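Teaching note: in complex prediction, the entire set of molecules is handled at once rather than each chain in isolation. The prompt given to students was simply: 'Predict the structure of this complex.' The entities are:
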Amino acid sequence: MEGYIGKILYFDLSLSKKDIRDLDIYDVKKYIGGSGLGAKILFDETDEKTDPLSPENILIFMTGPFTGTPVLCSSRYSVISKSPLTGIFGESSSGGSWGEMLKKSGFDGIVIRGKSPKPVYLWLNNGEVELRNASHIWGKDTFEIDSILKSETNSKAIVACIGQAGEKSIPLAAIMNDGVHSRAAARCGLGAVMGSKNLKAIVVYGNHKVEVKDAQGLNKSIKELSKIIVEKAAGLKKLGTAGALAVFEEMGSLPLQNWRYNDRWKEGAQKITGATLVESYVTGDYFCKRCIIGCGKKVEVKDGPYKGTEQSAPEYETLALMGSNCLVDDLAAIIKANELCNRYGLDTISTGSVIAFGMEAFEKGLITKKDTDGIELVWGNGDAVVEVVKKIGESEGIGKLLGLGSRKAAEMLGRNAEEFAIHAKGLDFPAHDPRAYNAGAVAFATSARGACHLSGFSHVFERSLAAPEIGIPEPMNRFDVSGKGILTAKTQNYMGMLDSLEICKFILFGGMGISTFIKWYNYVTGEKMDVDSFMLTGERIFNLKRLYNVKCGLSRKDDFLPPRILTWKKVAEDLSPNLPPLGTMLGEYYEYRGWSEDGIPSKEKIEELEIG
Ligand code: SF4
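The expected output is the structure of the full assembly:
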């Protein structure tokens, strides 16, 4: 089928044995690729008894039908596994150029199982598969590994790897790709799964071509739309994802002081927002492969204690979680902390969140200077953030506790620390306050992987985006309640498709929408998808992930948000004191989804979606 290479590599590390299987076209039509197809494989091959860090867990790398074609912003891949951070369905996706090169190497995806007796890396070279010794790179950081493995294989090869955090199976560990450009499949601790298998890296290279059914039609459409995309997304190019940080502060959606500060933080936000970053530190732009938007930035710190730090710029999420959420306005320190996370291979969202949690525990006396080896873990201390990142990456001292993520760290600390552990289903919150977006609250509570802004993206449909094809003619008022369950269900189905086709969601800010994605899918594959089948497929994918979590014992009781988010109002005069009425919105959401009041997909719904 066009849009696919047609092969998946299954590799059992315990047996050092490969098995190259044909892509199952029946599954591909039902689950598309990327996130959807990965979820299907995980659903079939693991269950509630699978220990995430055991050889029985599988680690899936999957591209989509857009990957490797001329479709814009499409060099993406998803990683799917049972998460060691949450114990449920886990997934994360990344850009850069690794996804496209994986396909060029001759595979749509890779499924890793087992555990190697010693450190190894996989070298996929134009259809050939070789398992190589990685003892000499064990203990090295992701930047070092990238250059060593390129010199050992091919200077044009692309490396996805873990740093020291993954080796130590720290539940906040990420899988990094593209070396110093630091693109990351960061959420859910999937780097720890890779480390538990003694798999240090997967290096890919090749020149396989992805066939497109109607290349002429696709190229013409892309040519026509490129100018519009570049113009509409110009803000992202100019200031990167950090550009909106000060605006989010005005809207009350920027996390502050572990989500507790309920006043304005104008001056602090100005010090770490995109405009300041560009003015003081940015040295260039970065584009993922096939991207014409270019939201990535390169930075250099030219003076002060972090002088010489030169790497990709912290994204909005990083600036917010390691910055404002810790009340840190020291941009150079955040840049350094970001660089360390990328080298160790750590999720900057969860790492920033758990450091803010640690600061609150320190303030309350649950953690002392004795525990932190003398680090003053106080609000606003950027140097402390840098030092604690090192401790988490090395899994030493206080880093051992905080590296478990805020849910587990709170359990270990006891003494009501759960009250200020800000997570859903064990996944620490990303930087979009659900008190500022009611649909955002539903999305955080119901996302399969835990607190997630991307799998629903519904908060953006309460701010600037519309999808008239599916009954969202204009952005909804963010504080409305009625309709937010339905909005969230629709956008989750929609985003599930983008994660399965593998296309960057920022192209939505370039004015693209469902009709264009369907047109491109049909050009690539020759299929005849329409809006109804697009949404039905997205719904199937979302329900499959839910059913995986139901297998793991989850239900309505787990679709929760922390009490601080549901009860703690913002009091500044120009901020809304809104608290999301989660129970009411969940009722609407379950009904629209055809789930029971307890949040379980009904038998009829499962049959209608042909999940099985
Ligand atoms: S918009 Fe940004 S994240 Fe998306 S593909 Fe382009 S550079 Fe990558």
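Point out the following to students. The mean pLDDT is 97. Residues 73, 95, 287-288, 291, 293-296, 504, 506 surround iron/sulfur cluster (CB under 6 Å).
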